[in-house]
Design a protein that fits this description.
Chain lengths: 510, 150
């Protein structure tokens, strides 16, 4: 399919894929702020995300076929170390594809839920903010310039705060949640930019590839180490790394349900990508302070997230809060994978990242369907839905099993890869903890599934009410993807392995 | 709005506001030769209108510069900026490559000059619009519980 696209795409799309990918959504987002009609805004946002999706496939195709494995684009034709460079390699081609495909499915499915949850005069502005957020996330993933990364991080974050706050139409608690998120997110971004400032002071350049080249000469200096610490804390906050995750549960549970779906599948993933980019491409596992941070910081924090947040998820009564805490726990698995500091560990972490985006996207989509038809999101509200909304709930159940890690689902494969990588490194006790945390997932997802399928409905007069077809189709695309990638893992696993290989500076291993 | 003791403020600000706006345009167009540029000029324009709102009241300011206009102005600013980027793309250059705007050979600099000028106008619109929108959002907010009901 990618070959076909590469052959049929016009020449301008091939040369300018990188800037078009981010600028089409950003430009259309600005135009949407002038459009009064929400329905037109919905269609425009589908067009924008579709174009980004196609361009991300093109970029992936070019990266896989052009030999060097790197697409570099000089903005304004200013040569890279000084000018801003958009730089795509196997790692961010994968992230771009993830963000764009989730964005496309999310915007297709969004209309019924946005229409019911966001006030009418705000819908087009809502889509405008969504496109800015989407463009910003793609920008974070595509840029090769550390300062530019900060700018895009802020573009996406600020529009995210707006999106979360728009949930106030349904639940007033969205406002404090958004404010809390704003404060935490801004602190994170500030820490990140302070860290970049330190690196700039030490190396005199902002281009990430260039920084990486100049760092080994100055790696002993306190400036670089302080910069490293600031960047890790800043991006850790954005990625909801335990214990910096306090903003996440509220933001996910009180925002509009479409927003929690989109955010859960993309924002923390993109922040995690930025963290990986800094840990492995800009700095590298050869620096002694980074090895120390892997062993004494990331590994314990990852494990703490896995266990502590899974426990917290067990005691939540709101389905979306269960899923939100489980998200923090899953970030813990990814952090554990990358804390191995090896190519295997990183590829397991990235593979986990891909699958988790798919799983959480499906779960939150199904929840959005329930919110649309039945309003409530507590576990009691979900009782008996298995009979009144079988299609929505079957997709939910598939994704829930995948989250737990049942064989034949994507979640199983990602835990398997993580387990392999951990065993290879000799951390067999960590494998036990992964299994233990998965057992907790059985409990917290099991509570919901039990209510859905085995309890009588809380209100017996609730009749059969399925989510509309616009929502069911993207939902089932994602649910079936969970099964498909649970049976044949070739596509995502190759992507993750290529990405890890590209980061470790080895040729794509295929 | 019977507040005669504000008469000096009113008279002075009526004289100052045109000068502030004029100064904003000086900062805008002098940006190539000295300190200044679209961001500062946008702030100064917004400050002129905010001063008007402080002296004559927010409703009067909202009649003069309606919130819909400021919001659209911010969006138009972004569109102008991004539009220059796309213009360069359509002229066959890289994104935002000013040199390509008029298909000039390397020695000529009209594209560089006009490109940055248009970009700065976009920044001016964006910043002024965003500042005013934020100001209106705070100043025009109606308390959901009236103060005396607390």
């Amino acid at each position: 399919m990618i070959d076909l696209l590469l052959n049929s795409a016009p020449a301008w799309a091939l040369t300018h894929a990188a800037p078009l990918m981010i600028m089409v959504p950003l430009m259309l987002g600005a135009i949407l702020a002038l459009v009064p009609s929400g329905r037109i805004a919905w269609i425009v946002s589908i067009v924008a995300t579709l174009s980004s999706f196609l361009l991300s496939l093109i970029l992936l195709g070019i990266v896989q076929t052009n030999g060097t494995g790197i697409v570099s684009y000089a903005i304004g034709n200013w040569a890279p170390p000084l000018g801003i460079e958009l730089r795509v390699d196997a790692l961010n081609a994968m992230i771009l594809l993830l963000v764009a495909s989730i964005g496309l499915l999310a915007s297709i499915f969004s209309w019924p839920t946005v229409e019911s949850e966001v006030r009418k005069e705000k819908t087009s502005l809502f889509y405008s903010a969504f496109l800015l957020c989407f463009g910003g996330l793609c920008g974070v993933a595509i840029t090769g310039d550390a300062f530019n990364l900060f700018v895009f991080l802020e573009v996406s974050s600020i529009s995210t705060y707006v999106l979360v706050a728009l949930g106030a139409g349904r639940d007033r608690r969205a406002l404090p949640a958004a404010f809390n998120y704003l404060i935490m997110g801004t602190i994170g971004a500030t820490f990140f930019i302070i860290g970049v400032g330190f690196l700039y002071a030490a190396t005199g350049t902002l281009n990430m590839a260039d920084i990486a080249e100049k760092l080994p000469a100055v790696s002993g200096s306190r400036t670089v180490q302080a910069g490293f610490a600031f960047i890790v804390v800043g991006l850790g906050l954005k990625a909801a790394m335990w214990p910096l995750h306090q903003w996440l549960p509220n933001a996910y549970s009180y925002g509009p349900s479409f927003v929690s779906m989109f955010l859960s599948a993309t924002t923390t993933k993109v922040a995690l990508y930025a963290l990986i980019r800094f840990l492995f491409s800009v700095f590298g596992p050869e620096f002694s302070f980074e090895i120390a941070s892997f062993t004494y910081l990331f590994m314990p924090l990852g494990i703490a997230a896995m266990v502590a947040c899974s426990f917290q998820a067990v005691f939540q009564n709101d389905v979306r809060r269960v899923l939100a805490y489980s998200s923090v726990a899953q970030v813990g698995y990814m952090i554990l994978g990358l804390s191995l500091g090896t190519a295997d560990g990183l590829s397991a972490g990235l593979f986990y990242l891909l699958n988790h985006a798919m799983i959480k996207g499906t779960l939150f989509m199904a929840v959005a369907g329930v919110v649309l038809t039945y309003k409530g999101t507590t576990i009691r509200d979900f009782a008996g839905l298995g009979r009144s909304a079988p299609w929505t709930m079957t997709a939910f159940a598939i994704a829930a099993l995948s989250l737990i890690g049942m064989p034949l689902t994507a979640g199983f494969q990602s835990k398997l890869q993580l387990g392999y990588a951990l065993f290879e490194h000799g951390w067999w006790w960590a494998v036990l903890l992964v299994v233990f945390s998965s057992a907790l997932a059985v409990i917290y997802m099991g509570r919901i599934l039990e209510a859905v399928f085995f309890q009588p409905p809380a209100n017996p007069r609730k009749t059969r009410k399925e989510a509309p077809i616009v929502m069911l189709v993207p939902l089932w695309v994602m649910a079936l993807a969970n099964i498909y990638f649970g049976i044949t893992t070739k596509l995502p696993l190759d992507l993750a392995r290529d990405a890890a290989a590209a980061v470790f500076g080895m040729g794509a291993g295929r | 709005m019977n507040s005669d003791h504000h008469i000096i403020l009113r008279a002075v600000s009526k004289m100052l506001i045109p000068l502030i706006i004029l100064y904003a345009f000086y900062v805008q167009f002098h940006g190539d030769f000295g300190p200044g540029g679209g961001f500062q000029a946008g702030i100064i324009i917004a400050v002129g209108i905010i001063l008007y709102a402080l002296i004559f009241g927010v409703p009067a300011a909202m009649r003069a510069v309606p919130p819909v206009f400021t919001r659209s102005l911010a969006a138009v600013g972004v569109i102008i900026y991004a539009g220059v980027g796309f213009w360069a793309l359509f002229s066959g250059g890289n994104f935002l490559e000013y040199q390509a705007l008029f298909h000039e050979p390397p020695g000529e600099h009209h594209g560089q000059h006009i490109g940055i000028m248009v970009i700065e106008i976009g920044v001016l619109c964006g910043v002024a619009g965003a500042m005013l929108t934020i100001f209106y959002a705070f100043a025009g907010r109606v308390a959901e519980i009236r103060d005396k009901d607390w």
